[in-house]
Amino acid sequence: MKPGIHPAYHPVVFRDRAADFAFLTRSTATSDKTVEWEDGNTYPVIDVEISSASHPFYTGTQRIVDTAGRVERFERRYGRSRSKR
Q1: Which UniProt key words apply to this protein (predicted)?
Q2: Edge to edge, what strands does the sheet with 21-27 contain?
């Protein structure tokens, strides 16, 4: 790699407050906030709104969209179908 052109790549803690979940990884992202990790070292922490611990796809709490119910509701509201031209 060419020296001096790449951003610093260092350990960072990403924390999902909604799921009370955090993981340590390496990243070029930086933060002024820090947290003491399980190993006793202090790392920069980046708070994220959603992670694999809180995302519905990964947690299995994903809602199934009732498309048939939506079609029936549309037909009730606006009629079955209008005459074809």
Answers
A1: Ribonucleoprotein, Ribosomal protein
A2: 21-27, 10-16, 42-48, 34-36
Q: Which of 8, 11, 10, 9 is nearest to 24 (CA)?
A: 11
**Residues in the chain, how many?**
85
Q: 11, 22 in Cβ contact below 8 A?
A: no
pLDDT in tens, 29-69: 999 999 999 999 999 999 988 777 776 666 666 665 666 67
DSSP letters spanning 11-57: EEEEEETTTTEEEEEEES---S-EEE-TTS-EEEEEEES--TTT-HH
Strand partners, 25: 12
* Cβ atoms of residues 45 and 16 within 8 Å: no
